[in-house]
Amino acid sequence: MTRDEFWQLIDASRDSGGETFETAENLREALEKRPLGDILEYLLQQEQVMEESYTLALRGAVYLAHGGCTDDQFEAFRGWLLAQGREVFERVVADPDALVDVFPEDDKAESEQMLYVGALAHEAATGEFPEGPTFHAPDLGARFDFDDALQMKPRYPRLWERFEFTPRASASSSDAD
Questions:
Q1: How far apart are CA 155 and CA 111, in angstroms?
Q2: pLDDT tens-digit series, residues 132-154
Q3: How far apart are CA 174 and CA 2, in angstroms?
Q4: Which of 34, 58, 67, 107 is most buried, by CB atoms within 10 Å?
Q5: Tens digits of per-residue pLDDT, 94-133?
Q6: Would you give the distance in Å from CA 167 to the centre of its chain?
Q7: pTM, whole model, 2 decimals?
Q8: How do the domains of the chain map onto residue ranges?
């Protein structure tokens, strides 16, 4: 499965109402109809796009929009971003401040379900839940303090304008570990 086919499958599964749970279910059902080789290729493509979206800049944007961001929240956010389709995913990864254009009004931008559709399709095909991929977290580069207004406001001017910034009690927990 090529990267284009991966995104075509996700885009074809997207729920017209924007419900990520429905998108995940549609995607799982579509994957279950495919040969095991396609499911394995899907899992590989998903691992690659998840690694590409593991950036300090994106995590800072999520931190600002969510009012904090644990490792699990960041992963669930990236699942939600995956469910938005290729155009949105690539735009927000390239420019995290563009998250302001797609962040839901209900402030719920998380989807753990999207992270497991490939594994569930694999389980349906083989009877076994696959071993989790080995995540290779890329080097995030120079860190910045997510609780420092002087660092956050210029990085995310549009997100800053939309979301109230409230510094956390402990700055040591604010930057990505």
A1: 25
A2: 665 666 666 668 888 888 889 99
A3: 37
A4: 58
A5: 999 999 999 988 767 999 999 999 999 999 999 988 876 6
A6: 24
A7: 0.86
A8: 3-173
